[in-house]
Amino acid sequence: MTVNRALFDEVMVPNYNPSDVIPVRGEGARVWDQQGREFIDFAGGIAVNCLGHCHPALVAALKEQGEKIWHLSNIWTNEPALRLAKKMTDATFADQVYFANSGAEANEAALKLARRWALDNFGAQKSKIIAFNQGFHGRTFFTVTVGGQAAYSDGFGPKPGDIVHCDYNDLEAFKSLIDDNTCAVMMEPLQGEGGIIAPEVDFVKGVRELCDKHNALLIFDEVQTGVGRTGELYAYQGLGVTPDIMSSAKALGGGFPIGAMLTTKEIAKHLKPGTHGSTYGGNPLACAVAEAAFDTINDPAVLAGVKEKEVLFKQLLNDINAKYDVFSGVRGQGLLIGAVVNDKFKGRAREFLVASMEQGLMSLVAGADVVRFTPSLVISEEEIREGMARFEKAVASLV
Asked: Which superkingdom does the taxonomy of this entry point to (predicted)?
């Protein structure tokens, strides 16, 4: 069998349009394709590969658990799930955890919990959910409707109701929407897919205060920002604002699929037995790998290193821009970084991704105008500099 890009078009549903490059092996921040070409990975599986590829701690955890027990279902519990939940609650505001397989599923659980909490405590009229334009919360029908990008939610029939949106960082618009019938507000503490947009401190604190005033739950979607990505274990810890419910996924498993919804015991009690569930959620394999990833990242030296790498990354991007004048700005936190293309390249961010591949660098976009970088959190300074040298060649080829 010839396994190449043409086979994708033959056997795969065409909802993706992947590169012709097919990676077959990775180690740390480097990847090799079928032809043995080497790439530096500044994409990180879209902020998933927090420890790069084939990190020894994750490989060891997978091998060890793989020889013990793989799957049970939630008729029984298991040791890795309990250990991971304990470590996550010890390190965050939360008391209890629900495990799923993805960020979308974790967000689905958060939204269902918020609706059930409001129904139990206040009645059926308290069902409004407020979210933000250009937000992204997953691809289930509920989460994609809450996400503020109509391009992803239109065209599938009637949408879940009582969901409204306003602009991120617009506190006045938010004030006009929230009322006593609002059950929850869902937001990213740093918008990822929407263009790497950081929240203004007054905005996020104002949202928290208004949620308290109207007895609404504040849900933080930390699928992309969580587990060290911003230089904090979770981004909320750097904002001085604590949510009522939080989702985590992507980097949580370091590449193994897992998601988690975290909350307080008082809120969690409204998901009684039978109200929600997942066949694979909290399976021993995923939780064992996630425990190893969580242990490795939840280290003051590693988290401080993310902030140091942020400074270097932005400095090198600004140096490139000083030569070629292609970006209007560089933004983001930790190693979730966006370079915003200027008017000369408006709508053409993807061209930088394609040109980077030709120079041996994997990168991402966040919309049509932002080149996004989400590398391993433990990438070396040498690999950052080498990757940026390749990115400079890509930029030079476009101007």
From this structure: Bacteria
Domain that holds residue 23: 5-54+300-398
Which residue positions form the known binding site for N(2)-acetyl-L-ornithine?
A: 139, 278
Between β-strands 38-41 and 30-33, what pairing exists: parallel, antiparallel or unpaired?
antiparallel
* CATH code of the domain containing 345: 3.90.1150.10
Q: How many CB atoms lie within 10 A of CB 251?
A: 29
Please tell me the predicted confidence (pLDDT) of residue 359: 98
Q: For the whole model, what pTM was predicted?
A: 0.96
Q: Annotated catalytic residue: which of 41, 221, 244, 369?
A: 221
Q: Which of 42, 99, 132, 136 is catalytic?
A: 136
**Average pLDDT value for residue range 335-347:** 97
Binding positions: 103-104, 136, 139, 221-224, 278-279
pLDDT class of 288 with cuts at 50, 70, 90: very high
**What is the average per-residue pLDDT within 287-309?**
98
Residue 136 known to be catalytic: yes
Q: Looking at 99, 250, 309, 369, which residue is catalytic? A: 250
Quote the tokens at residue 40: 């530096």
Active site residue 162: no
250 and 140, same domain (yes or no): yes
